[in-house]
Please model this.
Amino acid sequence: MLLDDDCLCPECRKRVQELKQTYRIEGRFVHVLYVYNEFMEQLFFQYKEDRDIALAPLFLSGQSRLIRRLRGCRIAALASWPEKTLQRGFDPLTEILRAWNLEADRPWHKTRSFKQSENDPGTRKEVGHLIACTPDTTRQRRPGRLLILDDVLTTGATLDALFSLCPDAQAEALVLAAHPLWLETHKKDRQSHPVFFR
Model:
């Protein structure tokens, strides 16, 4: 039996470590939904690398309040490297949103493949030079507060690059899952009374 609008069974849901925490990083708000624990890593691998597109709904499953909030935002998501998207046959963030009738603008794209897990921490910080603005995105703009969407936060380098390319100084970010090391490093940046997930 599934829980409410939850597509995870109760036993699997217990293995998901929900966080719902907001961090203020250099004046920008970063909202984190889950901890990137071993189970979440397995889910993302099965979804993205094993191309199990049926898993797309589960990343926002059981989050009806958050989904309502997202409907009032202008979501901007980093597109995968185009060749990787062709290889998979789908874009992971697009499908996660589509499962809940949400859409995202695509103001940025990766200029080549770069897998964080295959690089050392120093090299991971260089990911910013692999992200470029996508031409003619102004025609796609929707109303609402700009919310940058990323699936997994490891070092924060990708998010830093997106914020630096973003013309909206009020833009915030929603990260589906953050690595425990990033969370530990940014303990001091946690907001005492986060309202984003309420």
Notes: The chain has one domain: 16-189. The CA atoms of residues 34 and 57 lie 15 Å apart. The two ends are 26 Å apart (CA to CA). The first strand starts at residue 18 and ends at 25.
